[in-house]
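User: what does the whole thing look like in 3D?
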Amino acid sequence: DIQMTQSPSSLSASVGDRVTITCRASQSSSNYLNWYQHKPGKAPKLLIYAASSLQSWVPSRFSGSGSGTDFTLTISSLQPEDFATYYCQQSYSIPWTFGQGTKVEIK
Amino acid sequence: EVQLVESGGGLVQPGRSLRLSCAASGFTFDDYAMHWVRQAPGKGLEWVSGISWNSNSIGYADSVKGRFTISRDNANNSLYLQMNSLRAEDTALYFCAKALNHLLWFNPMDVWGQGTTVTVSS
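Assistant: Here's the predicted 3D structure for the full assembly of 229 residues, as structure tokens:
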């Protein structure tokens, strides 16, 4: 199984800050790496797929990069609605696996 | 509007069975692969199982293999998860999710339901 490791596990940031979350796979997942945003009591939402393709609803302050084993989610200017938990997930090899999540909190 | 509504959760004793359902609407159900994902209390997301549009490709997490069975009824726009030999560690919120296209492989899950809660306890 491909193990996904995110860092950090949590972070505190202010509105307007630049935020970077990293995701490392234990073996190559090519570019089959997806990012989800999850708020408490809500359904998770797909943010980015294939490492860097934004879903249509996602604002341009979000971006994704990487390939192989190392990936990054960047929020260029954090907004109040961005406070949530973010998960990476590989869809290259079954079983699909998620990172442990990164909780983004208000400083 | 694309919508997924899960049902069938509840309180069940260890060793017993439960069947979850997911009713899909707002899209052509048999054009898409489907998945189940769960979240245990206070934990992260865990992929459980996935099925291709025609049921020819199916996959399971190691933690449920041999105990859970995924299936779909394209005529009735429904996805199912038969859960047998339930354990305390299966306690979670179970989400139904739609894939980006018909293939099981490589595709993300682009639409999710609100989930149904399964509690395994004596």
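In plain terms: The radius of gyration of chain B is 13 Å. Chain B touches chain A through 26 residues (CB under 8 Å).
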